[in-house]
Specification:
Layout (H helix, E strand, L loop, with lengths): L9 H16 L6 H38 L1 H37 L16 H7 L3 H20 L3 H10 L5 E2 L5 E2 L1 H6 L4 H28 L13 E5 L3 E3 L3 E8 L9 E4 L2 E2 L4 E5 L4 E12 L5 E13 L4 E4 L4 E3 L4 E6 L8 E5 L3 E4 L4 E4 L6 E8 L5 E12 L5 E7 L5 E4 L4 E2 L1 H5 L3 E5 L10 E10 L5 E6 L6 H8 L6 E10 L5 E4 L2 E5 L1
Parallel strand pairs: 4-10, 12-18, 21-27
Antiparallel strand pairs: 1-2, 3-5, 5-8, 6-7, 6-9, 9-10, 11-13, 13-16, 14-17, 15-16, 17-18, 19-20, 19-22, 23-24, 23-25, 25-26, 25-27
Helix pairs in contact: 2-3, 2-8, 3-4, 3-5, 3-8, 5-6
């Protein structure tokens, strides 16, 4: 019984969704809307934990009832269940202590996990968890917890697969192909609200694992030896947080079932065909799941059991970020990352009002035109086949900045170097140089420029200027000959350097003052 027996539940999809969100959060601009989105998810996870804790309480009560009827048979299984409960509580508290310390690091001694003020703080998680080694200890404890739970359910391949997927602490591959450790993905340069949300997700997984494992242990008891005197209807939802346009799915089951009798289930006034309740989430808000389960008794009468739960529908959010910086440059390919939580990448469509758009293996490239800003719009194909508009984001468009001209040469060790002028330049390196190059003085932009030509301004003994022109990026033979004859301390200038970038614009660059050494 439970969502863990499904090949892939929305709970598992939510884990993938969270990592997509985190990857997008690594962009240089983290908006308040995204941070508030984490707060909403955190609140939803807390509600999910509360629901699971209530189900666990019911399950332990049923276990105690069975023990009172047959202590000899049930005692062994209840002892194992209590061991699961104690180990889960220990892991839960370890994570809770870490959450509290991270929030206090960010907000001070009065910090509150459920009311974080410094949501965008990127340092607190790393300082408390990574620098101290607590993150590594937590990871090792989670792996040990997983292995201990596997000992209890090892004969059930579905539950074993669920545990291995849920507590997979191996390396994580980012969208750009780089790999990062499990703990690094949670704490390294991550906003406090994101780290706390992920830790709360782990706590919710712990509570759900406790429910699955203890329920498995209870099912190992030969129920035929007991007289069931308490039957209760349960709503087991695969996820209680749904984006608008998605689907809410829940199974309505009895805590104790007789496989020879098929119950009649009514939810919100509608009778189900089976035990699965599916509705289309058409609007945001909190929605009830309330109804009855009717089960025929052996004497021909019918027993009726009520149930009540709810689910939350949230607004889908598009996360759009420029991979290089917070602006787009005209005339070049600007990589853009776009994701929608809960939607596969192949179902996301992007459009732009200014420029050319191409899809790549890692996302999208946009080549905008100069003169107007760029608005990026996102739509997505939903589970029911509808195409829904998700959101948009404007970007400023700027022309490429002018590059800096320099003489490219090799040092004594054969390494390429740049001479940008105004200091002594060894003549041997000067005459052996590769000529004039041009590049942006900005490490964030990888833009190539072609030098089309330049002038060299020499001075004769009378102080007159002699201009020699090169129509490519190399020194001419005549220019080289003149430089070889120059004594130490003599100056000359390289001017009117003409360079063209990928935007096709030809620029005249500032001169270079050369001092021969």
């Amino acid at each position: 019984m439970g969502a863990a027996n499904c090949p892939e539940t929305p709970r598992q999809k939510m884990i993938g969704m969270m990592y997509l969100v985190l990857t997008a959060m690594l962009a240089l601009n983290v908006s308040a809307d995204v941070l508030n989105g984490f707060t909403l998810v955190h609140a939803s996870l807390n509600e999910s934990k509360s629901t699971t804790e209530m189900q666990n309480t019911i399950l332990y009560g049923q276990f105690e009832d069975l023990k009172s009827q047959n202590p000899g048979r049930v005692g062994e299984w209840l002892e194992k269940a209590n061991a699961v409960k104690a180990k889960t509580a220990e892991m839960y508290q370890m994570i809770e202590d870490l959450k509290v310390d991270i929030v206090k690091q960010a907000d001070g001694d009065d910090g509150d996990v459920n009311n974080i003020k410094s949501k965008s703080n990127l340092d607190a998680g790393g300082q408390v968890a990574l620098v101290t080694g607590r993150a590594k200890k937590m990871k090792e404890a989670i792996e040990l917890y997983r292995d201990e739970m596997l000992k209890y359910v090892g004969k059930d391949s579905a539950k074993a697969n669920y545990l291995n997927r849920t507590y997979n602490t191996g390396m994580i591959t980012k969208e750009n192909g780089d790999k990062i450790s499990w703990e690094g993905a949670i704490f390294e340069s991550m906003p406090v609200v994101a780290s706390i949300t992920l830790l709360t997700k782990v706590q919710a997984d712990l509570k759900h694992t406790e429910l699955e494992v203890v329920n498995y242990l209870k099912n190992q008891i030969d129920a035929g030896d007991f007289r069931v005197n308490k039957i209760e209807g349960l709503v087991i939802s695969e996820s209680n947080y749904v984006t608008r346009g998605g689907r809410y799915s829940a199974k309505i089951v009895l805590a104790a079932q007789d496989s020879t009798k098929k119950p009649t289930i009514t939810v919100n006034g509608k009778q189900l065909d089976g035990n699965e309740y599916i509705v289309q989430a058409g609007s945001v808000g909190t929605f009830p799941v309330k109804g009855t389960i009717r089960l025929p008794r052996p004497d021909g009468s019918t027993a009726e059991y009520g149930f009540e739960s709810s689910y939350i529908v949230g607004e889908p959010t598009a996360i759009i970020s420029a991979d290089m910086m917070n602006v787009l440059y005209a005339g070049i390919q600007n990589p853009i990352s776009v994701s929608v939580p809960g939607i596969p990448a192949q179902n996301i469509n992007v459009s732009v009002n200014n420029g050319a758009l191409t899809r790549t293996a890692k996302g999208w490239n946009i080549n905008p035109r100069v003169g107007q800003d760029c608005n990026i719009s996102v739509s997505a194909k939903m589970a029911d086949g509808r195409v829904q508009t998700i959101g948009s984001k404007p970007f400023r468009v700027k022309p490429l900045p002018p590059p800096i001209a320099y003489i490219e040469f090799r040092d004594d060790k054969g390494h390429l170097q740049q001479y940008k002028g105004s200091k002594p330049f060894p003549k041997a390196q000067l005459v052996g140089s590769n000529g004039i190059r041009a590049a942006l003085d900005d490490a964030d932009l990888d833009v190539r420029y072609q030098v089309l030509g330049f002038d060299v301004n020499f001075f004769d003994s009378m102080g007159n200027t002699i201009v020699e022109t090169s129509n490519n990026n190399s020194f001419s033979a005549k220019q080289m000959a003149t430089m070889r004859q120059m004594p130490r301390g003599r100056k000359f200038f390289i001017s009117r350097v003409r360079a063209k970038g990928p935007d096709g614009i030809e620029r005249i660059l500032p001169p270079i003052e050369v001092i021969v050494n």
